[in-house]
């Protein structure tokens, strides 16, 4: 059993920034890195919108810079995956007497007891599940128009999805690209009326209703996509479009399933935090108020952010979580 003051779960911008702040506060944090070192940011090819890198930076380089900075101030890194947690929830009457430590297991065997835990497990983009998506990931396939759209200026791209997010990303890309296809599997858009009108009235956007993506094509990078129109219908047809980029806008999975019995989450699985901060609420029960804060449990980054999903925002929330964790630990 390992007893620590501050334990951080996750190694993306939120987790690493939390580690920098926590270690500088002499909390001697332990960070469990998880299955994807550096987080979802490392699935892109270059980062150009993070402050401090005027010429852009490769994501692995940026994440390594953050990791080394945290290590310099005393963060201990543990390779592995968190497999189980037991957080000390407030009593049904709201009391916090005794404040027992929170328990976290890595790889089922290594037990950590911590006064404060910062959850920074991020969110994973939903993909269609095509083999060609994996082949071209980072070479034309992206799940973030804000992150990667700049690389496709004056080029032709496709956006998959028919909801508000897809419409927003298509409009954003239309401001950069020569042409944007929207690949929509239904005969209609699911987005709000105002977002639909923005898409349908944009001369740069062509909506391909009732189309599904069969595969992506190209030599070393995305150069086209094969689509199927009205699959299974009498007028089924195959269509090929020439594109330079393929953007997924069909949602994200917050990586929070492990914590569902201990922290309150919204309908999509994002952790609910207090007053847009980082403190977590206990799950709602018949006898517990939905506003019951769990002492010593904080969330930062995309696991608690269904709106922005940007590295700089995640880093900022990591800093907030560490500052709040420091205040909490000092109060014990």
Brief overview, please?
With 332 residues, this protein is an alpha/beta fold. 23% of the residues lie in helices and 27% in strands.
Question: Secondary structure elements and their pairing?
Answer:
Blueprint: E1 2-9, H1 13-24, E2 30-32, H2 59-72, E3 76-78, E4 82-86, E5 102-106, E6 110-119, E7 123-125, H3 131-135, E8 141-142, H4 145-148, E9 156-160, H5 164-174, E10 179-184, H6 193-200, E11 205-209, E12 211-217, E13 224-229, E14 237-242, E15 245-248, E16 252-254, E17 279-281, E18 293-299, H7 311-331
Parallel strand pairs: 1-2, 1-6, 2-3, 6-18, 8-15, 9-10, 9-15, 10-11
Antiparallel strand pairs: 4-5, 5-6, 7-16, 12-13, 13-14, 17-18
Helix pairs in contact: 1-2, 1-7, 5-6
């Amino acid at each position: 059993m390992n007893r620590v003051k501050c334990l951080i779960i996750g190694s993306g911008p939120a987790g690493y920034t939390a580690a920098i702040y926590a270690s500088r506060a002499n909390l001697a944090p332990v960070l469990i890195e998880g299955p994807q070192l550096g987080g979802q940011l490392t699935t892109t090819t270059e980062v150009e919108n993070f402050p401090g890198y005027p010429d852009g930076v490769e994501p692995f380089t940026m994440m390594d810079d953050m990791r080394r900075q945290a290590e310099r101030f005393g963060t201990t890194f543990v390779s592995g995956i968190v497999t189980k947690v037991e957080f000390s929830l407030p009593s049904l009457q709201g009391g916090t007497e005794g404040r027992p430590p929170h328990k976290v297991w890595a790889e089922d065997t290594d037990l950590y007891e911590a006064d404060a835990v910062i959850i920074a497990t991020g969110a994973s983009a939903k993909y269609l599940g095509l083999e060609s998506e994996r082949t071209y990931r980072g070479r034309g396939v992206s799940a973030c128009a804000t992150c990667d759209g700049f690389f496709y200026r004056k080029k032709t791209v496709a956006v998959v999805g028919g909801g508000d997010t897809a419409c927003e990303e298509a409009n954003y890309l239309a401001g950069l690209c020569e042409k944007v296809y929207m690949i929509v599997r239904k005969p209609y858009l699911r987005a709000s009326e105002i977002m639909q009108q923005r898409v349908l009235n944009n001369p740069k956007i062509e909506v391909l209703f009732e189309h599904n993506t069969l595969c992506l094509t190209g030599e070393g990078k995305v150069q086209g996509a094969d689509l199927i129109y009205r699959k299974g219908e009498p007028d089924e047809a195959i269509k090929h479009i020439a594109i330079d980029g393929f953007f997924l806008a069909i949602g994200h999975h917050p990586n929070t399933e492990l914590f569902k019995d201990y922290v309150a989450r919204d309908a999509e699985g994002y952790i609910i935090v207090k007053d847009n901060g980082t403190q977590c609420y206990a799950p709602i029960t018949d006898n517990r108020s939905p506003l019951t804060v769990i002492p010593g449990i904080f969330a930062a980054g995309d696991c608690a952010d269904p709106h922005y999903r940007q590295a700089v925002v995640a880093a900022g929330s990591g800093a907030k979580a560490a500052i709040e964790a420091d205040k909490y630990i000092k109060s014990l």
